[in-house]
Structure formats: C-alpha cells, structure tokens
C-alpha cells in the first residue's frame, strides 16, 4: 500500500490557525475522508475549523471540485436543447419547482430537477409529488434523458452517484454543528449541481425565519459564493435573494402544495407563488437564451399545464387522480378583529411537520394529506371569530403539539405591516 501523501492533523492545524490549505492537501483530505482513511473525528475538527475561520475563494473552488471528483458526472450534451436548472435553499410552503419546471420546459428548454426529500421544518419536492397516485421519483439516467428529450421537464430523485463525498460530509456536519458554514454549504450544493451537468443554474437563496440563513447579509454572501463557483466552473449562474419570513403561498404540506401548484399552472394561485415562479422562470429563460420569453402567457394559455400533465404521466402519475385528503381537520379563528401583522414561516413549518407533513429521520414516511392551509396572510383584515388557518392530519391527537408550535407564531394588530418585496436582490457574476 502506498503511503498517504499528507497528514490529516497538518491539514486541520493549517485551517485551525487561519491559513489556507494548499490545493493538493485539500483534494487529498476530501478523497481520504470519502475512502475512510481520514476519520469522522478528524473531519469534524476540520469542518469546525472551516466554520470558525472560513475559506478563501480558491479553497472553496478546490473543495467543490474534490467533491465532484468523488462521484459520477452526468451530461446532457446529447440533448439538442439547452438545459436550465433551479435550486432553492429551502423554505416553508416552497413548492415553486412544481410549476416552474414545466413552465420553463414549455419554451423548449430541458429542465432536469434532481430533488430531495424534506427533513425537519422544510418540505421536500419529492414528498410533495409522491402525493400524486402512481408517481415515481426514481428514474434511471436513461429514463431521465428520454423524458428530457420528449417532455422537457423531469423532477426526480438524485442518484447516489453524484458527489458521494458530500453525502458523507453532510451527514457528519448535521451532527457536529457545522452545517452553517458558508464555504461548506456552497461547495455542498454546487458540487451536486455542477456534477449534474446543467448549462445554466438559477439559485433561490432564502433568508428569514423559515430559511437556513436568517440574516439577509449571510444569505447574500452564500449567494455570491455559489454564483462565483458556478461561473468559475462554466455553468451560467445567477441568484435571487428571496424573503422566507412568511410561508410561501397558502398551502404548507404535500398534497395541498401540489393542489396549489396546479392552480398556478391553471393561471391562478396565490400572488406570491406566481410572482416567484415567474421571476425564476425569467431568470432561467434568460440564461438559456430567451430573455424576452412571455412567461405569463404560458401560464395563462395552458402550455405550462400541458407540460405538467405530460411530465406527471411520464413518471407513471395520474394528473387527474384525486389527491389524498386528511381524516381530521382543526380550524383556528381570530381572537380579535384587526389586521394580520405576522405569520412566522419557521413556526408554521414546525407545526406542519408535527402534523405529519415532514419527517424527523430520513427513513420516516410522511403523511401526504397532512399540513396547514392558510386562509389569510399578513396584511389581511380579519374579524373576531374569522377562520385564520386549518390544520389537517390523519390523527387528531397531533393537533395539540402543532398548536403549541403556533403559540406566538402569528399576530393580529391594529395597523397593516410594512410590505417588503419578496425578491430582495438579484446576484450575478
Ligand atoms: N443543502 C445542501 O445540499 N447542502 C448543504 O450544505 C445545505 C443545504
């Protein structure tokens, strides 16, 4: 066996003392950890040093590259159309991928959305789509390419072959308090996106109570880091910085979020969901060479809906089948008249999770019909006794814990809250 060229302790010390790790040592560290030579204990010390001391732009590029090199790289070069992808850093009620992928594909762009399942208070796109009877998340690479060529849009599970180093590292960060390091989040997300092989990528980087990054300045730093990484790797990348202090839309859950997405595809739906879907579609289409595409027209005239139906059918789902409905509901009403001033995204996300819409462990099943339907949003005037939101669950015993999470999560005041734009900033290379 050839001796290892570096010593993990030297790499850890370099980062601990605030220095930059040389390229070959950093590549080795990622590779040796993936092989099991560098231990979890050593990698945890290293990731904590990164969290505390940061990384230079070049180190983040090398880290990302090393994670890409740990697995397969996909290619969409055989398709005769440009590819555009979108990634959201995750939020509450964030169902945007569902209307967005078919909408952009309706313009002849291939949209490969390799998605995940929810963990904790943020939902997962695959969980939402699995509410549709028959729909299948697992596709082979060949099936995915065939669907991209034919329908144009695919939303499916990311295979285990993309950036396996990230999978191992993410699980370690999750249990060592090192998820929040911007260099690690950026390299984790971008290694998977670059390995996937898309031509262009639009990032929806969220800030606020329901987001990973509570603070807009940190979200901006994350967005800038990811845009630089994508651009340096030849992927046309832009980011929108969007507000996640309030749940997106009116539905939080799985089946109800599919229902709301279908409303958007039918030309209706809540204004904020439409606004963000349209904003992200415009960005994706601009990167794919169609800056003047009339996105709203494709929602209004049914082109996006046609693509949605073909996309769902191609993965064995029945777009006309009734979606699951919960056995029990509980409606919360206003204790006074006034104006709704706040609905906290994080608390509503936790409540929906407690109702069964999310999972605590990766192996748990979600209850597709569970969730929350908002009947009002901040800024709406309400009368005492008026219904504010409805909780849905298969087991009424879950309501108490969900209501605990909602204690203090919303407010009714005398004056309307100040409105802030949903899309706060656009970040380009
Ligand atoms: N999502 C990822 O894929 N990785 C992170 O580090 C954080 C969010």
TrEMBL record:
Keywords: Glycosyltransferase, Transferase
Xref: Gene3D superfamilies: Nucleoside phosphorylase/phosphoribosyltransferase catalytic domain, Pyrimidine nucleoside phosphorylase-like, C-terminal domain, Transferase, Pyrimidine Nucleoside Phosphorylase, Chain C
Record's keyword annotation contains Acetylation: no
Swiss-Prot/TrEMBL GO biological process terms: pyrimidine nucleobase metabolic process; pyrimidine nucleoside metabolic process
Transmembrane parts of this sequence: none
GO CC terms in record: cytosol
SMART domains assigned to the protein according to its UniProt record, in alphabetical order: PYNP_C
Presence of the UniProt keyword Disulfide bond in the record: no
GO molecular function: 1,4-alpha-oligoglucan phosphorylase activity; thymidine phosphorylase activity
Family statement drawn from the similarity comment of this UniProt entry: Belongs to the thymidine/pyrimidine-nucleoside phosphorylase family.
NCBIfam families, per database record: PRK05820.1, Y_phosphoryl
Name of the protein described by the UniProt record: Thymidine phosphorylase
